[in-house]
Amino acid sequence: MPAATPPDQGHAVVVGVDGSHAALNAVRWAAAEAVDRDLPLRIVHAVPRDPGGTADAVLPEAQDVAMIAAESVRVQCVRTIGRPEDVLVRESQRAAMVCIGARPRHAMIEPVIGAVAAALARGAACPVAVIRTRSDGTAHTDGVISVVLTDDVGNDDVVHLAMHEGRLRGRAVRQIDRRADSWVRRFPDVRVETVAAGSGHQYGRDTGAHDDVGLAVVGPADADALPTLAMPTCHPILGYPDCSLLLVPR
User: Fold this and answer.
1) How far does Cα 16 stand from its chain's mean position?
2) Which fold has domain 1-142+217-250?
3) So what family is this one in (predicted)?
4) Contact predicate 117/146, CB 8 Å
5) With contact defined as beta carbons under 8 Å apart, do 78 and 42 qualify?
6) Could you tell me how far CA 82 lies from the centroid of its own chain?
7) Which long-range CB contacts under 8 A does 167-171 form with residues at least 24 apart?
8) DSSP 66
9) What's the order of all strands across the beta sheet hosting 13-16?
């Protein structure tokens, strides 16, 4: 049986950059995505006005980081005039994925996501990766990949993307079952370990992954709520939304 292809194949994997450390973490993450999908990595730097003949130091630095992260990556560098959120929403129309960086949240009163991520959550036409940077400068992506199983239309696409990321990143995927009629919900007192028959995986096998959630793959309902979410309420993914996020649009 051939390997499952990544969902939502487009013309490129797009990453928005602004010279920040968080953006460079997003470039590293996006470079692996582009190589895995056999697509170019399109590095986009949006500027508010035409700088004339001024050299753009942001793009060469981002290109160098991408080439170090994945030697075989094919890079396209673009500087364009406009607000980053408008530019990246437009780029999403022909992208397999849009990636951006996000700094750590230092206080609960801060918005859950910034203006660019909020605009992409509302209007992107492809999945959006928001790669969170920790206070020490490292990318918050090194834990398990978590996804919620629901009865929502399109949930299979969300889970498909989570499984793809688990294979690509070498991470365990934690599936949280919230389906109304699932066996887990019928028998909440029974501990369940899910293993696909014929996969060669054994019960209790140590995955070697950190228990902390490094990436939450979420569907349209959570993505729609993010721009207006000020104080996170109870969510089945522990650590959400302060981990890195992969938003799957409606």
Assistant:
1) 13
2) Rossmann fold (3.40.50)
3) Belongs to the universal stress protein A family.
4) no
5) yes
6) 24
7) 168/32, 168/33, 168/36, 169/32, 169/141, 169/145, 169/215, 171/143, 171/144, 171/145, 171/207, 171/209, 171/214, 171/215
8) H
9) 75-81, 41-47, 13-16, 97-102, 128-132, 244-247, 210-218, 143-149, 173-177
Instruction: Examine the pLDDT at 200 and tell me if it is beyond 60.
Output: no
Q: Count of CB atoms within 10 A of residue 249's CB?
A: 20
* 209, 144 Cβ separation under 8 angstroms: yes
Q: What is the 3-state secondary structure (H, E, C) of 98-166?
A: EEEEECCCCCCCCCCCCHHHHHHHHHCCCCEEEEEECCCCCECCCEEEEEEECCCCCHHHHHHHHHHHH
Helix (H, G, I), strand (E, B) or coil at 81: strand
First to last CA, the chain: 29
pLDDT(206) > 70? no
pLDDT tens figures, 129-154: 999 999 999 999 998 999 999 999 99
HSE-CB for 152 with a 13 A CA cutoff:
18
User: What is the structure's pLDDT at 186?
Assistant: 83
| Cβ contact 5:159 at 8 Å | no
Tokens of 61: 């630095």
| Domain residue ranges of the chain, discontinuous segments joined by + | 1-142+217-250, 143-216
Side-chain-side CA neighbours of 13 within 13 Å: the count stands at 25
Asked if residue 162 lies in contact with residue 145, where contact means CB atoms within 8 angstroms, the answer is: yes
